[in-house]
Design brief:
The complex is a heterodimer.
Chain A: E1 22-35, E2 38-51, E3 55-59, H1 66-73, E4 81-86, E5 89-90, E6 98-101, H2 113-117, H3 119-123, H4 129-141, H5 157-169, E7 175-179, H6 187-204, E8 207-212, H7 215-221, E9 224-229, E10 234-240, H8 255-269
Parallel strand pairs in A: 3-8, 3-9, 6-7, 7-8
Antiparallel strand pairs in A: 1-2, 1-4, 4-5, 9-10
Chain B: H1 2-8, H2 13-17, H3 25-50, H4 60-72, H5 75-107, H6 109-124, H7 131-138, H8 143-166, H9 170-178, H10 183-220, H11 226-235, H12 239-267
The chains are: A alpha/beta, B mainly alpha.
Chain lengths: 270, 277
């Protein structure tokens, strides 16, 4: 992998048995915003290839541009320089192949859980009836089988975020974009959600881009962790997480896991 | 999460026992009746002690007699019907136009720029002051009252519709963009539903103003309606009947408001669900 400074880290190992073609490709991506004091460079020279089916986390402190990177990847905003290729095609706006989970659950408070999950179906002008069964399966999988007729206000933060994940998965997207989806949750709920996300993702086969500032979360979920430097956001280092899957909560105490987290921590603070 | 705690914790029996008598439903009703009776008694005592003429202030009993007499002979209901018709027609017309123009205005910056100053000016202008010219233009029938009422209802709806439609949550807007929603889908499935509570608040204000609009319209020139009847009783010194009309107007106002409230609570059932239910 090419690092922004031009140095090379270890060559990319074949991570899985699947034949990996590149799904998402960032090419020389830069982004600057105009502010009161002039233009601020937020992202600088991002080069990254994400193979199909891989789970990649972008790890960095707040304000390092990681959310901007995700929004560019999804075509929600345009880069200042460089481009994003998805399966070789440059993108300029979101596609139906993408599922999103944001920092907040962003549920529509006037819709029930079921109606919220079926929102993408309605927007794609498909028949919601054909997807009700699938929505129920997703809900059951996330322990919300009882809640389909509830309104978001009746659910806890963790439950709301589960509904948001179900909504992202209802169309079985080939790409999952997640922007600190568990940032607002307490540590215990967060670990549970990590387990559930791992299970759901491994069944879906989708390519996942996950934004977080939590080192352990990144290490637990990812095939690779991209550490971003701050101001401007540059790729500092890319870590391979070659721990076996499925990963279990107790693996968080394994020596390899802990030492990997330490390395990432050092990389972030150096 | 707190939700689960609230759902699983045992009901606090002691709390129920210690509720004061006036917070039970029977207690509340008897308290209301008691206070109302006391007010009527004080009112009567005041009239008697001061020796006031019924032309100035009739006793509650005199008002009641007039109310019953003029209700049973159909006098008050007939006028009330006219006023109610004006209120409802004016309310529907004014609200519909306010919402329609609000929707159009919220869609385009150009429209907002063009209409902005006029909207502000016409909001500052007291609409009731236009009643005389409406009589000149439209005569003494119900038309001028409907127009005045519509004018009064128009602005709260215009303003609330614009506010509601332009203050959509930015995260939800981004979600719709991420879902590749077309403009009309975002409008129908996001902007309208999230504006509805604000629009309903406008309707609640408008229905109260509508009663004022219709009655003042009738003051200016009418031969029918409760407002016209007030002017007649003023001329004929029938103060008890005037008070009976006030009772009618109050009841109409409360009923219309309650209907709006009921519509709102059925429409937004989700807002009335308790957390952890």
């Amino acid at each position: 992998m090419r690092v922004a400074s031009g140095l090379r880290t270890e060559p990319l190992r074949a991570v899985g048995p699947r034949a990996r073609r590149t799904k998402i490709h960032f090419q020389g991506l830069s982004k600057s915003f105009s502010t009161l004091t002039g233009r601020t460079l937020v992202l600088d020279g991002i080069e990254l290839e994400i193979p199909e089916g891989e789970f990649v986390s972008i790890l960095g402190e707040s304000g390092c541009g990681k959310t901007t990177l995700l929004r560019i990847a999804a075509g929600l905003i345009a880069p200042s320089r460089g481009k994003v290729l998805i399966e070789g095609q440059q993108i300029s706006k979101p596609t139906r192949e993408m599922g999103f989970v944001f920092q907040q659950s962003v549920l529509l408070e006037w819709r029930t859980v079921m109606e919220n999950i079926l929102l993408p179906i309605e927007i794609f002008r498909l028949d919601p009836k054909d997807y009700q069964q699938k929505a129920r399966e997703l809900l059951t999988m996330m322990g919300l089988g009882h809640a389909e007729a509830h309104y978001p206000i009746q659910l806890s933060g963790g439950m709301q975020q589960r509904v948001a994940i179900a909504r992202a998965l209802i169309m079985a997207p080939s790409m999952l974009f997640m922007d600190e989806p568990f940032g607002a949750l307490d540590a215990i709920t967060r670990e549970q959600m990590n387990m559930e996300l791992q299970r759901i993702w491994s069944m879906s086969g989708s390519t996942a881009l996950f934004i977080t500032h939590d080192i352990a979360e990144a290490a637990f979920l990812s095939d690779r962790v991209v550490v971003l430097a701050s101001r401007p956001g540059r790729i500092k280092k890319i870590f391979e997480v070659d721990l076996p899957r499925p990963r279990l909560p107790e693996h968080r105490f394994d020596e390899r896991f802990v030492s990997l987290c330490k390395e990432m921590k050092q990389c972030m603070t150096s | 999460m707190t939700v689960i705690e609230a759902a699983t914790s045992a009901p606090d029996d002691e709390d129920v026992v210690r509720r004061p008598w006036y917070s039970t439903s029977a207690g509340r009703t008897s308290l209301t009746i008691l206070v109302f009776a006391a007010v009527l008694a004080l009112w009567t005592a005041y009239v008697r002690i001061m020796g006031l003429s019924p032309l100035v202030l009739p006793t509650p009993y005199a008002v009641w007699q007039s109310l019953v007499e003029n209700t049973t002979n159909g006098h008050l209901p007939m006028h009330a019907w006219t006023t109610l018709t004006e209120i409802i027609l004016g309310f529907l017309l004014g609200s519909a136009l306010g919402i329609a123009l609000g929707v159009i205005t919220s869609q385009s910056e150009l429209m907002r720029t063009i209409l902005g100053p006029y909207i502000l000016a016409s909001q500052a202008m007291p609409k009731l002051a236009l009643a005389p010219i409406m009589v000149v233009w439209l005569g003494f029938g119900i038309a001028p009252k409907v127009v005045i009422t519509a004018l009064v209802c128009f602005f709260p709806l215009l303003e609330n519709t614009i506010i509601g439609l332009t203050s959509t949550n930015s995260y939800q807007l981004e979600l719709f963009r991420a879902l590749t929603a077309a403009g009309w889908q975002t409008f129908l499935k996001l902007r309208i539903p999230s504006a509805l509570p604000v629009i309903f608040a406008g309707l609640r204000v408008a229905i109260t103003l509508a009663v004022v609009g219709a009655v003042v319209g009738e003051y200016v020139g009418a031969n029918k309606g409760l407002g016209a009847l007030v002017i007649v009783t003023q001329g004929s010194f029938d103060t008890p009947l005037m008070f009976a009309i006030f009772v009618y107007l109050t009841v109409i106002g409360i009923l219309l408001y309650k209907i709006m409230e009921w519509l709102e609570s059925t429409f937004f059932a989700w807002r009335y669900i308790k957390r952890g239910d």
